[in-house]
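Record Trafficking protein particle complex subunit, 143 aa.
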Amino acid sequence: MAATVYNLFVINKSGGLIFYKDYGTHGRLDTNDSLRLASLWHSMHAISSQLSPVGGCTGIELLEADTFDLHCFQSLTGTKIFVTTESGTPGMENMLRLIYELYTDYVLKNPFYEVEMPIRCELWDLNLAQLVRKDGKAGLTGR
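=>
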């Protein structure tokens, strides 16, 4: 089964949206909505880690709604990658890790990229599109 990814967001450690890509065919967000959603998610993620009754909680990793799921990966540096997907899409933890690998390979290692700034890297865009559009089995089990 192919993974249906609707949107992908990358948020820097300060809560600023540094990348947004819409893969859905309907319900596209404008720039202001994507910025607002990223800021809201950053805040909810931080609050959830403080409110957790269990020690060591790092924040929300999965939010399940009636019509979509929101999956989040937070790196050790505080960068968050989150995607909205079709409800019940399996294997998103692995896909988020692969997206983070692409981020480290094509964004952070790019000598022209300034950390915490919006991402404008052609190789990142190309490889990310290839990963997201791939057959679900190939894209979710490894490269």
